[in-house]
Amino acid sequence: MPLARVVSFDGVSSERMAEMQGEMESSDRPDNVPATEIVVLHDPEADKSLVILFFDPEDDFRRGDEALNAMPAGETPGQRTSVAKYQVAFRMAN
Questions:
Q1: Quick one: what percent of the chain has pLDDT higher than 90?
Q2: What pLDDT digit, counting tens, does each position of 61-84 carry?
């Protein structure tokens, strides 16, 4: 079953989100973060963000989780407030 790493951040301004988007679009995903998909959500009124990374299999989750936990704080969107691991029970897309 696929897994999702869900991370919440506070203090994420629209300017920082635009900066992060530019950085992500202009670079390759790191080899040590083998996510199958990355979704970034932003609430500009509350300066909050959620980042959801999907992994399959569990070994890829562990590898990505270790790499992301080791990232310097300056490379994140804002102040990390929580990290959680979820099983992806259902998914629908067009």
A1: 76
A2: 999 999 999 988 778 889 999 999
Structure tokens at 64: 């990505």
**Tokens at residue 58, please?**
């569990």
**Residue 52: which H helix or E strand, with range?**
strand 48-55
Residue type, 22: G
Please name the residues in contact with 8: beta carbons below 8 A apart, sequence gap of 6 or more.
48, 49, 50, 80, 81, 82
Q: What is the pTM of this model?
A: 0.91
Question: Taking CA 85 as the corner, what is the angle to CA 11 and CA 34, rounded to the nearest 5 degrees?
Answer: 90
CB atoms within 10 A of CB 83: 13
What sections of the chain are H helices per DSSP? 14-25, 58-69
CB 55 within 8 A of CB 64: yes
